[in-house]
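Subject: Sanity check before I submit

Could someone independently write out the structure tokens for this chain? I want to compare against mine line by line before I put it in a report. The sequence has 573 residues.
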Amino acid sequence: MTQLPWMGLGLSTNLGPRDRPDPWWILDASPGAIDFVEYSAPLDPDVALAEAPRFSTLLERRHELPAIFHPVHLNLWGPALESEENLAALRAHLRRVGSPWVGNDVAWWHHRDAPFPGYLFVAPPFTRAGVEQAAAHAAHVQAAIEVPLLLENPAVLHRNGDLHVLDFMAALHARTGQPLLLDLGHLLAFQLVYGLEAEAGLDGFPLEQVAEIHIAGGVITTRGARRFYVDDHGQPVREELFALLERILPRCTGLRAVTFEADGHPEPIALRTLERLRALVPRRREPQAAGIAAANDDAALEAPATCATASQDDGWGSAATAAPPGAVDGAAREAWRLFDLVHGAPADGVPDPDGLRAEVDFRLAVVAQRIDRAWPLTRAACAGDRAGLERFATSPEYRSLYDGSGRQLPAVFAAWARRVVREERLAGADAILAFESWCHGLLARVEAAPPGSGAIRLAPGVAVGSFPVDLSELLFAARTLRRHLADRAAAAGLYEGSGLEALRQIAARAAPGPWAVLLRRTGGAIAAEPLDPSFLRLVHLAARGATPADLPPADREALGRAVAAGVLVAGDR
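---
Independent answer below. Compare away.
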């Protein structure tokens, strides 16, 4: 038997220094608004302390605000079982935090510890074989940890399999005996893909085995006659999900927690949703709400080993038996086939080409966003439209992200772009690639250099250099053209990359330099702009160790503007 404590109403957020909402701000500002925090962080707790600054706050204040670990680094489907090293890290993490359980979407999240861009997982096929494959992963993880593993229904954007997602999850529960985590947005995504009502499939689904519910923001988009729900936690919660929550709560008699996944919401906005949810979900130590298990610290859910609606005659086997030896091998073949399809590989004969195209579009948009943080101009010149992004996402360079070498997406894209520019001789693209490569090199040298002794110096994350070609018109064109295309997309309900070839034309006609450039790195993103001529002299003076007192009045005025612009730092500031 598995005993789960009552947790109540929780808030999910990331643990970066600027991530919002801050659950401890909400706890202090509005005591009683939340009962726990659910979070994602690296599996290794020491890595989490180094990479997620608020993880230390979580540990320090977990007596005030209990925590539930919800990683996005844990495969519950895919070509290979989770490594023993990762499982040991997960076990240590759960012990340190005291998480009463760990939940994760039944999906493929990473390969050889390289996550998919944007943590966009690949969902398993909703088939009998998919159940067996996921069961093998779930049993492997559960055997390595000391708390229950909750199985969460994954979101989908295209049809793949003959089972309803609720039937798939019910069968997986029957196969493993593990409690369920029902994500309402993910459920709505499936229903829309198949053209079903929001509550379709709930009759016969073991709602009494649902230990946790997720509710979050998202967007419904229309493409032709189809509608798709895109999970986006930074968006407001849709009314369809509030209505679905109210209707199913009385039937979830084993429920232990409801989590508002609020990543990206400012605290006052998150509080509005929490207030609405609090009317439905009691606090710990408070009287039970209608249809919800007793809400006190000592109450516990005893989850049976098998689903009440499943039997041996269903053909799924029992929770006590191991998954077939070939389950993971079958998952490997299917996983890589799906990986290729959702990144734009030819999809002849798939059952849902329109849905698959919607998923490819969404995934490629996320890939583009990640690339644009480091190579925005090169991406526009070499992969500025859907076809170009497909070429990159189906290339050997992209696949090398997952070969265990530890390469990152920006470096992989740069390698692909160099090959494309070399092989296709794209006029202008060579200059754009050379410029952004120069930007990266200059910033790396500046950031690696020891701090200067002068009182005037470049601000952190800022570099200044001289490029041999004047590309100021290119920077202007890139900003205005993106705004033009974005405005058209907003008006027409689509995005297309026509016009981006103008950037290559502008780069090809650029006049010789020298051209003074200001580079800024903010939160990992690089931005370039022409350097204000009045600042250039100050930069040279700073390199010589000048102090504000050494400057004539005209230069002091310019120094004030440079400091205000975030280019220079003067004195001890």
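---
OP: Matches mine. For the report I'm noting this point. The first helix runs from residue 23 to 29.
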